[in-house]
Write a structure and sequence with these properties.
Elements (H helix, E strand, L loop, with lengths): L2 E5 L4 E6 L4 H20 L3 H17 L1 H12 L3 H26 L2 E3 L4 E8 L3 E5 L7 H13 L3 E4 L5 H13 L7 E3 L4 H9 L3 E7 L2 H13 L3 E5 L5 E4 L5 H13 L11 E5 L3 H13 L19 H16 L3 E4 L14 E4 L16 E7 L2 H9 L3 E2 L2 E4 L3 H8 L8 E2 L14 E2 L2 E2 L4 H5 L4 E8 L2
Parallel strand pairs: 5-6, 5-8, 6-7, 8-9, 10-11, 10-16, 11-14, 13-14, 16-17
Antiparallel strand pairs: 1-2, 3-4, 4-20, 9-19, 12-13, 15-18
Helix pairs in contact: 2-4, 2-5, 3-4, 3-6, 4-5, 9-10
Amino acid sequence: MAYKTIYPYTNEVLQEYENMTDQHVEDVLERAHLLYKKWRQEDHLNERKTQLKAVASLLRRDRDKYAEIMTKDMGKLFTEAQGEVELCAKIADYYADNADQFLTSVPLETDTGKAYYLKQATGVLLAVEPWNFPYYQIMRVFAPNFIVGNPMVLKHASICPRSAQSFEELVLEAGAEKGAFTNLFVTYDQVSNIIADKRVVGVCLTGSERGGASIAEIAGKNLKKTTLELGGDDAFIILDDADWDQIADVLYFSRLFNAGQVCTSSKRFIVLEKDYDRFVKLLTETFKTAKWGDPMNPETTLAPLSSAQAKKDVLAQIQLALDNGAELLYGNEPIDHPGNFVMPTIISGMTKDNPVYYQEIFGPVGQIYKVASEEEAIEVANDSNYGLGGTIFSSNQEHAEAVAAKIETGMSFINSGWTSLPELPFGGVKNSGYGRELSELGFTSFVNEHLVYTQKK
């Protein structure tokens, strides 16, 4: 079977799910399309606001249940999963609370008559989502589109099927109509057919470059709108006037949260030559504090990677980097356990001819880059195929903001690690994709901005 929960701590198969038939998919799409038509013709906004509030309440009430499902699906620390559930509840609350404001028509100034545009639903959407944040990735596209009136079908990662199914159960328990959100256990061929279906108007995807390119190609052939978030190789720039106490406070979180399996985690640490030895010592001391073990144990601070394949891939990237001239500063030792653990590892001396230089390492690996000047730091930060996020440390706010403006990225975080909040837009540039999720920008991604114009007589 394609969809399995294999607990990354033990590699034990906990649950398996059959793929859905084409007829099942047809029934789901027809139900969702009919619901879109109903929502489009009748005003059910207040009902959806109430239902989305109920989703938030249920998440908080059953926080530990949903957190454990995520941990068993993809291995994240139970404590981190609890935080993810709360973040999902906040996103649901945010869009329910701001629905009226976001849906208000916008007047347009013209001397030729009266003009405004409406914000209206467009139809059924397909969400293709990854495993690293099994609920959050869904919620940040479901909540805004549910409020505007776009039903959603989901193709989740094959390794977190219980998370996907339980999200559908959550939405139904909150009182939403059947068809508002439906999880699908489907093949890639079925995904292609779903995108091509005339009842589906768009696709939102978070995943790999390869997956994004494939989905975008199919969507483009069928004239379907897409938003893509495709990973990052985020820079962590330490300027000459940085506060090192602040740096120390965020280092662990910035790289080792979720075992380093975060698109916006800091992967490339860029430091001036004069501070290089100091930073190597600080990062090494930080990584040494990692305590691997049972992700359900609150004392564990380093989770296993999501799958045996993920572990194999990360270890292969480390070795490839070392084989091509990178220097091992710490880690890369085997962990004797049946789970998918990778020891936190630090490498340096990466050059442009190293095949790993332009790759994203999706695991607990920190790369340190030594630079001669601030200008070189900016150049190294921008020398990436990605442009998702990045961090800048400086005790001078204006200085930090000036440097941030020179970085080719979608998000810059000053004197803090990466963060995600309902009111802040999330997305990147270059190979990190296009479009935005969260905030009002995420709300408008699949909205029809419908002009209504009356010309003067």
